[in-house]
From TrEMBL:
Reported cofactor(s): [4Fe-4S] cluster
Residue ranges occupied by any Dihydroxy-acid/6-phosphogluconate dehydratase C-terminal domain in the UniProt entry: 408-601
Coiled-coil region list: none
Cofactor note: Binds 1 [4Fe-4S] cluster.
Entry's Gene Ontology molecular function annotations: 4 iron, 4 sulfur cluster binding; metal ion binding; phosphogluconate dehydratase activity
Annotated metabolic or biological route of this protein: Carbohydrate metabolism; Entner-Doudoroff pathway
Record field: catalytic activity: 6-phospho-D-gluconate = 2-dehydro-3-deoxy-6-phospho-D-gluconate + H2O
Biological process annotations from GO: D-gluconate metabolic process; Entner-Doudoroff pathway through 6-phosphogluconate
Protein name as it appears in the record: Phosphogluconate dehydratase
Length: 605
């Protein structure tokens, strides 16, 4: 089916806007593809270093340009439950490569931090910048120029966007992303949230909280709520970087290993040495990016991708804007209810039909472009499947049923949970911001209340503990943008604001910081740009100023006389405490050179 008229129009607008950047990018990709890799033309010293640890047979093969060599970029570490399974993947990939007549080498490792571990800690101020550091680290690995294709082992928040930026920077290489899958279901996410709120109110202690958290995050695999990590997996599949049906298969299962083997072999099959050359930079185009945004809206995905998708697209010469994302949200219906946008987790989503059912529904009405290239071939229709094992342990695919396996989790396109994706841009005299309302009750989509200003999330927490916030108000938490302190996630605000909202008060959040994919029931205008550190209007707000957050009209206004507000001098705050400790001094160049949030908060702008 042809794309929906609005989808087509927005895509065409992105194509036109991007044309000079995209043409220059594709020229670079094609020139790089024509130049190599040519291992036989490397100096003998270069080549000897590159294959020093290989077997004699592998050295003979790599001495020429006939046998494909697969570079593995891995984000394995033991600190991320989602990434711990990757410890065993390189041997599996090497063996699969040999079976396919190729060779695989670990080209390099990249850093991968867990936002859950660093939440509310100084290390969180490195989190967003880790994305661009990951892209650079992956670039170093691939710069050996020994490879015909690459596979990327990464799942979580900043890791996948960073790896995508690297893959597109090396866009002359085919690139396949290999997931490790979600952990099995533990304590229900709504119960975990309930315990967190009880702890915030002082009704349970640390022991009870730790027990609940440990039952939620209990083993290898991705956290099971639908935050940025699982939004990443959805994106990689709907954009064509994953093999069909691969995203949400649990780790440590025969199917998971079979999918990993298949992905490695497929990466070798699509090199320039074969007949299906699929360089990542040519494969990903404006249609692929729009498909990713549509998938984000249809699943109620992470607000972090208003940063990451913009930065990822720019790596391919594609200029995606918040306006594009917001307008796509207006026409894309919400088809999934996964926590925090529902009670189910990603295992329930997968069991109900998962990505195959979702893509099939979106294709029905032209909400996604089918005429795209993927690592699997041509057309998104090939992704309307469920992956299984045959009697010999090989991956086979069956068409996803036309009916949802659970109508509380996955809805057909004819009867969506809501008519729009719930991720909107807000504009007004405070600048631009984004808001996710898919989990916010309709009666809370408009909040007008006096401001209470804080310069960090801890100040709000302390005021809550002192009982000073039992009233209607909009919390303004500023100096949390990328230039100020790296734009950390502010999830410590969620429990107290949730408690106050449950007590019947009208509350909302306005911040130049982030709230990530786990932001839920409290209306939150986030990623405000210009940020306070740049002297943005948010730095002029005073306690008591009336603010109107209107997620229906898409506006964010401080209701102060325009002349008076314009005459105010932006507050300046001493940010020296953000500059040292826990590695923050190493990222000072990032804070100095980072772009604005609406440009992806990237140092590559």
């Amino acid at each position: 089916m042809a794309a929906h008229s609005s989808i087509e129009a927005i895509t065409a607008r992105i194509v036109e806007r991007s044309k000079p950047h995209r043409e220059a990018y594709l020229d670079r990709v094609r020139r790089a593809a024509s130049q190599g890799p040519h291992r036989s033309t490397l100096s003998c010293g270069n080549l000897a270093h590159g294959f020093a640890v290989c077997s004699p047979a592998e050295k003979d093969a790599l001495a020429g340009d006939v046998v494909p060599n697969l570079g593995i970029i891995t984000a394995y570490n033991d600190m991320l439950s989602a990434h711990q399974p990757y410890e065993t993947f390189p041997p599996i990939i090497r063996e699969a490569a040999r079976e396919a007549g190729g060779i695989a080498q670990v080209a390099g490792g990249v850093p991968a931090m867990c936002d859950g571990v660093t939440q509310g800690q100084p290390g969180m101020e490195l989190s967003l910048f880790s994305r661009d550091a990951i892209a650079m680290a992956a670039g170093i690995g691939l710069s050996h120029n020994m490879f015909d294709a690459a596979v990327f082992l990464g799942i979580c928040d900043k890791i996948v966007p960073g790896l995508v930026i690297a893959a597109l920077s090396f866009g002359h290489l085919p690139s396949v992303f290999i997931p490790a899958g979600p952990m099995t279901t533990g304590l229900p996410n709504d119960e975990k949230s309930r315990i967190r709120q009880l702890y915030a109110e002082g009704k349970v202690g640390r022991a009870e909280l730790l027990e609940a958290e440990s039952k939620s995050y209990h083993g290898p695999g991705t956290c099971t709520f639908y935050g940025t990590a699982n939004s990443n997996q959805m994106l990689m599949e709907i954009m064509g970087f994953h093999m069909p049906g691969a995203s949400f298969v649990n780790p440590g299962t025969p199917l998971r290993e079979a999918l990993t083997r298949e992905a490695a072999k497929r990466a070798l099959a699509i090199t320039a040495l074969g007949n299906e050359f699929t360089p990542a930079g040519e494969m990903i185009d404006e249609r692929s990016v729009v498909n990713g945004v549509v998938g984000l809206h249809a699943t109620g995905g992470s607000t972090n991708h208003t940063l990451h998708l913009v930065a990822m697209a720019r790596a391919a010469g594609i200029l995606l804007t918040w306006q594009d994302i917001s307008e796509l949200s207006d026409v894309v219906p919400l088809l999934a209810r996964v926590y925090p946008n529902g009670l189910a987790d990603v295992n329930h989503f997968h069991a109900a039909g998962g990505m195959g059912f979702l893509i099939k529904q979106l294709l029905k009405t032209g909400m996604v472009h089918d005429d795209v290239r993927t690592v699997f071939g041509h057309g998104l229709e090939a992704y309307t499947v469920e992956a299984k094992l045959d009697a010999n342990g090989a991956v086979v695919r069956e068409s996803t049923p036309n009916e949802s396996g659970d109508l509380k989790v996955l809805a057909p396109i004819e009867t969506p949970f809501q008519s729009n994706g719930g991720l909107k841009m807000l504009k007004g005299n405070l600048g631009k911001a984004v808001i996710k309302i898919s989990a916010v009750k309709p009666e809370r989509h408009i909040v007008e209340a006096p401001a209470i200003v804080f310069h960090d999330q801890h100040g709000l927490q302390e005021a809550f503990k002192r009982g000073e916030l039992n009233k209607d108000f909009i919390a303004v938490v500023r100096f949390q943008g990328p230039k100020a302190n790296g734009m950390p996630e502010l999830h410590r605000l969620t429990p107290p604001l949730g408690v106050l909202q449950d007590r019947g008060f009208k509350v909302a959040l306005v911040t130049d910081g982030r709230m990530s994919g786990a932001s839920g029931k409290v209306p939150a205008a986030i990623h405000i740009t210009p940020e306070a550190c740049d002297g943005g209007p948010i730095a002029k707000i005073k306690d008591g100023d009336m603010i109107r957050l209107d997620a229906v009209a898409g506006t964010l206004e401080v209701l102060v006389d325009a002349t008076e507000f314009s005459a105010r001098t932006p507050v300046v705050v001493d940010l020296s405490d953000n500059e040292f400790g826990m590695g923050r001094e190493l990222f000072a160049p990032f804070r100095r050179h980072v772009g604005t949030a609406d440009m992806g908060a990237s140092v590559f702008v």
